[in-house]
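User: Could you check the structure of this?
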Amino acid sequence: MLCGPFAGLIAALRPGSMMGRTIWRFAGFTFSAEGGLEGESGPVALQPKAGGLLELLLRANGAAVKKETIAAALWRDAPPSDDSLARTVLALRRALGEDGGAIYGGGFKLACPVETVGGADGPFPSAAAALLRTVWEIAASRTFCSLPRAMEALRFTVARFPNYAPAWKIMADVTTAQTIYGELSTGVAAAQMADCCEKALRADPRCVEALAARGWALAMFAGRDDEGRRQIDEAIGRRPDWQSFFYSAWLRVDRRDLAGAMADIEAALELSPLDRTLLDLRAWIMLCQGRLDEADALARSADALRPDVGATISVRAVAACERGDFARGVAQAERGAASKEPSRIALSVLAYACAKAGDVPRARQTMAAISARPNGQTASFLAPALVALGELAEAERQLRRAEDEHCPWRAFAWCDPRLKPLTEAGLQRQRRV
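Assistant: Sure, the predicted structure tokens are below.
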């Protein structure tokens, strides 16, 4: 059963409550909640809250929108900080550029004429777009518990609106996240992503996010590296998007190009500066580059912004253990695994930290909890603790299993600092051909 922020939005999707699609034109742009922002040269990337802010300003038709109104509309659970609101305004300013109309403070408004060109006969209700904005924000946190909730809401959406490309492309992204968290088998993930991307591209051939996701899936799950790389490059060439750069970075790691992966992440952060997924991956790549202090500092900064998500906490735990501060490493790993149902990633880091600290019983107990999880993948998440326990041959066997299962985390095995003893012992497998 769906609860929390999904309940009211799904009620709004029921027959009798549909609102018509509205399209606005202003300063050389067109915007709709369903289709997003487009300029004269094509689609313009817009963060979810910046898009919500733009819709509020357009609906105001030249009147100023008070900060309190913006906060109530875009931050339903808790009032935003001044910095959060300022970052959202800045993101919208950057998207619109100098010719997009000024946004004034003290309340905000667009200082340019706005023309309404859409009406009540559009194919999709604005409630569907509102649902997707909420789904996207929850799914982007990549918490273990949020992803199944997001997926359930997405399935409801595509059942009602099977030609709604944004829902299909976000479903592909959530599938990616569930796979990275180890909660889906790669066979299920491959089939699901192929279906989502095909339907997104059929509904909207310009959907570069779906094209990039399909390229990543081809490389990760089918071993078609060159074809997958071409599709991601094509997506970036059509319209740079942070998700396309994220997928590109992952493939560059698989090709042992950490510098190129970092460049992709930096390019993605230019488009979406506060996305937690990108901040997490940047910190993890720094860790893999051996830049322990920088990775820890970056993870600490991101942790201060969003302490509710465990991925950067895991980076801090690994960095502490690699510096020999095992007590701090265990403490950080415990934070990452403190939720009622911690992810396999968080459990993996906890097992590794406990093993490094010499708490062998707890390390083995945590590894058993990973193995007991139904479905999904386990091999990549067991290997680091096995290395810390000195069981190198078994760790190598698990990595070979991850290779056979096409686990996405195998891309990082060659540079993961926790697995370095395998390389030193000459055991770690060669990169697949």
